[in-house]
Predict the 3D structure of the following.
Amino acid sequence: MTEDIAELKKKLREQAHANRNAQTNKDELSANICAKFMALPAYTAAKTVMFYIDVRSEVRTRQSLPDALAYGKKIIVPWCNEAGELELFHLENMDELAVGMYKILEPKPELRGLPEKQCKPEDLDLVMVPGVAFDRHGARMGHGKGYYDKLLQHSRPDTPLVALAFECQLFPEIPMAPHDIHMDKIITEMAVYEGKGRK
């Protein structure tokens, strides 16, 4: 049974990657998706918001970060440490980012250890979540490494989890294990879908 689910997830992941890589107008669609995220009432209400920084063919967030920084909110971005865990960084300026390993834009190493730059998952009022594949009920599939699962488990129960995706990353159903976390919303270029969340 578990092997079947693993095989199904692998196929879905491959299909979602192929769909996402083939997606045209990524910049334009991403700007539209990010604008919808920043128009959410939960965004208006939040003091501390986590943005992910796009990698490869994900919905692009980096062009919307300067707007978010100018908006007077505390913007947090995640980065991956050597132990393969996500840590949170208080971003105040785009100059604090540099291209690191795997050509990923991340906080500069010399700034990461500064106490004023660190943040805990419990401090987040709204979390933007990337992913590989989703369904319209908020089920999410990542890269299978569990980076975000650990982070999301430690965020406050009242903090909305909002995923960004292209419509081509949505599938009728994503197999979920009991510990997997559903998103509260999924925003695509077409719609804002209401997910099951963590209820």
